[in-house]
Structures are given as C-alpha cells and as structure tokens.
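To the wet lab folks,

You asked to see what we're planning to order before we commit. Fair enough. Below is the target structure as tokens, and below that is the sequence we designed to fit it. If anything looks off to you, flag it before the synthesis order goes out.
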C-alpha cells in the first residue's frame, strides 16, 4: 500500500492543523505501507525532523490559496496517478478544494466548518471557492474524519455529506510536553525573546476578528480589572489573521492597554511554559471545531474559562467554567470567580487534569491510519 499525505494548507506545521499533522507523522509505524508527503517546498523542512524517513515530493511552486486550489483541481489527478498512490490523505480537507477526480480513494480530515460561521451576509463574502467548490469537494471524499461530533453534525447539515461516510476521531494531547510544572515565586516568566510579568491571563489563538472574539475579551478584561483591582496582564499568543488591525486598534484604546500584550506567532515548543505561568486561561472564541488549546491548558493544570460555543463544550465537558461569549459581563464574572474563589479554582484544575486523560495522539493516529487502510 502506498499512501500520499497532502501537507498543503497545514500552516507549515504551525497552529492546530499543523500540530495535528505533525503528531500523526510522528506515529506512522514502520510497516509494509509506504507513506509519502507532498506539498509546497518549504514544508519539506517543516516535517523533516518528525518524519525523516518519509519521502517528500515538492509540488505547486507558487504559494497561496488560489494556486493551491487550482493545483488540486487541475494537477492533482495526474500527479497521484504518476506516484501510484493507493490512497490519498488530506489532513486539512476543510481548507482546500479536493480534486474533481482521483485515481485512488481519498480520506480527508475536517477540523471545523468556520467558513460557514456567522450570518448570511458574512457567508456571502466568502467567494466562490468556499461557497460552491469546497462543499462539493468534501462530498467527493470517500471517507471524512471529523474531529468532533459538532463538526460531524455540521458536515451533514451544511454540506450534505452522507453521515455513513463520516467518522469522528478526536484530536489528542501530548501529555509529555503539556503537564503541570512546579510553581515558583518568580514574578517573571522568561521565554526567549519574551519576558512575561506575572500574574497574567492567557488566550492562545490567532488574532482574527470577529470569530476569535478578542474585542469582547478586552471589555471583559476591563471589568475584571475594575472589580478586582488585581495586577493581572492579558497575554494574547497568536499570529495575525483577518481583522487583526481592528483588534489591535481596540486594544490600544483600552484604559488597560498597558496590560494587554500581543506576542505574535508563538512557538509550539514553548507553549507549555507559557501556559504554566498563567493564572487563568480564557477561550472566548465564538467558534471552534474542537478546542485543542483548552486541552493544552488543562493538561498543564491551569483552570479554563471557556465560551459555551460550537465544539468547545464537547471538548471540555464539565472541566471548565463556561460563559456566554456574547455577554462581556458573564465572561468577566467567570474570570473574577476563578481569580477570587480558590475552591472553584482547584476544582477546575482537578477536573481538567482528569478530562485530558480521555484524549491521546496515539489513539488518534491509530484510528486515522485504520480508516485510511479500510478505505482501500
């Protein structure tokens, strides 16, 4: 069996989708199956460390979403045939236009359906590819992996993918990397090139408006500061995306702008230390298909204040303190509760550490590889 793994649209190993592919590649067993990665040339160096024995085939020399879509629509079929693939796996199927025809069976993972989030007028601005080509592409996949039951439901209702072709395989968590670290009395967390003054609240997410809900978080942070008079800062760890300029403009207008800190893209390897230094981790996002960051925070023993939205409650279950992401007072109440009530704080810690035991990258990889093999 020869399996082609498409690394296009996986963020060059960054963020959630990049972490997903990286963890799967680490766990490909040395069996009779031959796995091969194909994608942009710069991906060769991204995944070489985690999968040094897998051959990488560079394709589509022009970078960008449009070039990516065109290559899959018009060049993929010939390429897959020339490589003699028995099956092709698309780890970011929700971000690319799957081929019109494939010489072999196809399996794709859908991490979210965020392009359909929001009101109708929002979706109208998506353009032809998301509104027309992408749903048709997802329906053409032989098997679809959804990272949560929430995503599965959306695939059935929004895209009309047959339920019988969808399998739910939750993401995992690396408990060797993300684990509680000893607390010390140091007032500063040093993560080169950053120096974070404690105490701080933390939100790990790309800076994107409105879906990541940063602007309401700023207002909730203002209320938190005024109610408690605590010296907490708000750390926002994530690269800029759509609407980042507006988010930063609002942050700069906040009366507590000197306590709001943007890190830009933050290295995954340094995230455990960043989480561990936080007092509280907050996830106000209006939409998440899964909520990998929630697991990362819980695994490091940090209580989570979480939006009751989309797939987040499915991931966190009873281990987080929930709020309405549209209600800044409700959001602020949960932050104040975690900051002032040590009993609830410790209870969230305990439930979080218990919850993360239900997620494993080993199980995720094993189930995914099983689906790929069954698709033949």
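Sequence we intend to order:
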């Amino acid at each position: 069996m020869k399996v082609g793994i498409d690394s296009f649209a996986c963020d060059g190993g960054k963020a959630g989708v990049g972490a997903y592919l990286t963890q799967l590649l680490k766990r490909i067993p040395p069996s009779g199956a031959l796995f091969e990665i194909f994608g942009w040339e710069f991906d060769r160096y991204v995944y070489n460390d985690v999968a040094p024995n897998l051959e990488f085939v560079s394709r589509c020399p022009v970078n960008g979403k449009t070039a990516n879509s065109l290559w899959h629509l018009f060049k993929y079929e010939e390429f897959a045939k020339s490589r003699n693939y028995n099956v092709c796996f698309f780890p970011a199927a929700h971000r690319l236009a799957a081929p019109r025809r494939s010489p072999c069976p196809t399996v794709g993972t859908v991490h979210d359906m965020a392009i359909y989030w929001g009101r109708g007028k929002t979706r109208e601005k998506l353009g032809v590819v998301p509104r027309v080509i992408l749903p048709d592409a997802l329906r053409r996949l032989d098997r679809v992996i959804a990272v949560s039951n929430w995503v599965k439901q959306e695939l059935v209702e929004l895209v009309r993918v047959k339920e019988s072709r969808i399998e739910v395989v939750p993401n995992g968590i690396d408990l060797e990397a993300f684990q509680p670290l000893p607390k010390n009395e140091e007032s500063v967390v040093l993560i080169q090139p950053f120096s974070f003054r404690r105490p701080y609240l933390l939100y790990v997410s790309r800076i994107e408006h409105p879906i990541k809900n940063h602007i309401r978080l700023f207002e909730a942070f203002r209320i938190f500061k005024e109610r408690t008079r605590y010296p907490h800062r708000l750390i926002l760890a994530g690269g800029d995306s759509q609407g980042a300029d507006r988010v930063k403009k609002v942050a700069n207008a906040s009366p507590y702008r000197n306590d709001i800190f943007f890190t830009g893209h933050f290295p995954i390897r340094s995230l455990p230390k960043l989480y561990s230094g936080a007092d509280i981790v907050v996830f106000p996002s209006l939409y998440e298909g899964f909520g990998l960051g929630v697991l990362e925070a819980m695994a490091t023993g940090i209580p989570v204040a979480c939006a009751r939205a989309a797939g987040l409650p499915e991931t966190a279950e009873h281990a987080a303190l929930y709020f309405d992401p549209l209600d800044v007072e409700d959001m602020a109440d949960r932050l104040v509760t975690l900051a002032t009530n040590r009993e609830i704080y410790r209870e969230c810690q305990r439930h979080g550490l218990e919850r993360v035991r239900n997620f494993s990258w080993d199980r995720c990889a094993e189930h995914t590889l099983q689906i790929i093999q069954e698709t033949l």
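Structural context that might help your review: The domain at 188-358 is CATH 3.40.50.2000 (Rossmann fold). The first strand starts at residue 2 and ends at 6.

Thanks,
Computational group
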